Amino acid sequence: MFALDDHRIHLEAEPFARDVDAQTVGALLASGTACRAPVDGTVYGTLLNDRAALDALGDAVNAAPYKAPPKAPVLYVKPRNTFAGHRAKVVVPDDEQGVQVGGSLGVVIGRTACRVSVESALSYVAGYTIVADLCVPHESVYRPSVRFRARDGFCVMGPALVARRHVVDPDALRVAISIEGKAPFMANTSTFVRNVARLIADVTDFMTLAPGDVLTLGVPHGVPIAHAGDQISIAIGDWLPLRFSMTAKEGGGR
Fold first, then answer.
1. CA 47, 132, 24: angle at the middle one, nearest 5?
2. Dihedral-angle region of residue 229 (phi above 0 means left; psi in -120 to 50 means alpha; beta otherwise)
3. How many domains does the chain have?
4. How many whole angstroms separate alpha carbon 180 and alpha carbon 178?
5. Staple 155 to which of 16, 39, 82, 160, CB 3.0 to 4.6 Å?
6. 73 belongs to a structural domain
7. Is residue 253 part of a domain?
8. Model confidence over 241-252: pLDDT tens digits?
9. Are 215 and 46 in contact (CB under 8 A)?
10. What is the pLDDT of residues 73-98, one digit of tens each?
11. Distance between CA atoms of residues 34 and 15, nearest Å
């Protein structure tokens, strides 16, 4: 069981995460403190769940070897080395290519979920968090290389985990991805093919999700590219934003 009373935050300087109220989270973050990821379960990313992303493929979804649009969720794993928290500095492997900044709703599982129904799916949710699902830009859709999505720090989460009771409708949340000095990229969780409940039901039809696991709703189509030196902020709904920055490899730079 992964239980959450209010908001969960894990300060960088503290050994364990703690549950606090929203006002306390705001005060802690206002001081400029850095955080670790608020959860440490397995993180599953979801591909092609945004309608615009699926539409952008056009006839490519009917090409070999699949020859049809996906009938089940297309998942990938963000391994533990990718985990980072609020105010992290993430290394850009190739600054000419940059890094795709995917802002996604992270659905945190509260109890073991196996073959759950759509009607009961949300009762298995402990809470939600912001996930910056980063990747090297690439053309592969169904089987992206691990080296594109599993770089160190390529899954920034936080700054806090928000209890389910505070989120009235997870399928109607504004998502804003901002790179300092540029117009923000705007999206909404209402545009996804599978909403939160349907995604949980469809995923648990073929695999079990454990307490503390995170299932991302997916990355919106057309998210921005960041480069070394960029300061990034991702906000969902009225939650406190997740902030982090991109840095060059040692000896590198723009």
1. 135
2. left
3. 1
4. 6
5. 82
6. yes
7. no
8. 999 999 997 644
9. yes
10. 989 999 999 999 999 999 999 999 99
11. 13
58 in helix, strand or coil? helix
* The pLDDT value given to residue 250: 62
Short-list 98, 160, 109, 110, CA closest to 131: 160
Q: Any idea what the CATH number is for the domain that residue 165 is in? A: 3.90.850.10
What is d(CA 173, CA 164) in angstroms, rounded to the nearest whole number? 13
For CA atoms 78, 81, 85, 90, the dihedral sign is: negative
3-class SS letters over 142-194 = CCCCHHHHCCCCCEEEEEEEEEHHHCCCCCCCEEEEEECCCCCEEEEHHHECC
Let me know the angle formed at the C-alpha of 226 by 220 and 230, rounded to the nearest 5 degrees: 130
Question: pTM score > 0.90 for this model?
Answer: yes
The encoded tokens of residue 48 equal 């092609």
In whole angstroms, what is the distance from residue 133 CA to residue 50 CA? 14
Strand order in the sheet with 174-179: 88-92, 242-248, 231-236, 174-179, 185-188
pLDDT at residue 145, rounded to an integer: 73
Is there a domain that residue 236 lies in? yes
- Bridge partner residues of 155 (DSSP): 83, 133
Give, for 77, the enclosing helix (H) or strand (E): strand 74-78
Q: Which domain holds residue 213?
A: 7-248
User: What pLDDT, in 10s, does the model give residues 201-242?
Assistant: 999 999 999 999 999 999 999 999 999 999 999 999 999 999
What is the predicted pLDDT for the residue at 55? 80
Give a yes or no: residue 76 inside a domain. yes
